[in-house]
Amino acid sequence: QVQLVESGGGLVQPGGSLRLSCAASGSIFSPNVMGWYRQAPGKQRELVATITNNDNTNYADSVKGRFTISRDNAKKTVYLQMSSLKPEDTAVYYCNFRALTWILDYWGQGTQVTVSS
Which of 63, 31, 70, 32 is nearest to 47 (CA)? Predict the structure, then answer.
């Protein structure tokens, strides 16, 4: 079982930066993929970025070049560095852990990111 706790969300002005953190605990199975998803009001949850246990990354086109995902396996933490934030980035951001071998998904509770002037 994997537990995920997100942090780092908040209110930021357009063009600003924010870093989200997701601390994992429990059995971190490999291979795995960790990622960030977001859900805006009235919209379905969408993928933002993912990173594998061997640091292969993938980004949504809408955030490519602005967001950077990384992970620290020693700390069991995945990060999302967000720069040049836009109002369209406003959403609840969720951390995800996927155990590929067992096809298992775990989710955090989410952290609110609001980009507004």
Answer: 63
H/E/C letters for each residue in 41-52? CCCCCEEEEEEE
Write out the chain's pLDDT in tens, 117 residues. 899 999 999 999 999 999 999 999 998 888 899 999 999 999 999 999 999 999 999 999 999 999 999 999 889 999 999 999 999 999 999 999 999 888 889 999 999 999 999
C-beta of residue 96 within 8 angstroms of C-beta of residue 2:
no
CB 37 within 8 A of CB 91: no
CA distance 20 to 1: 22
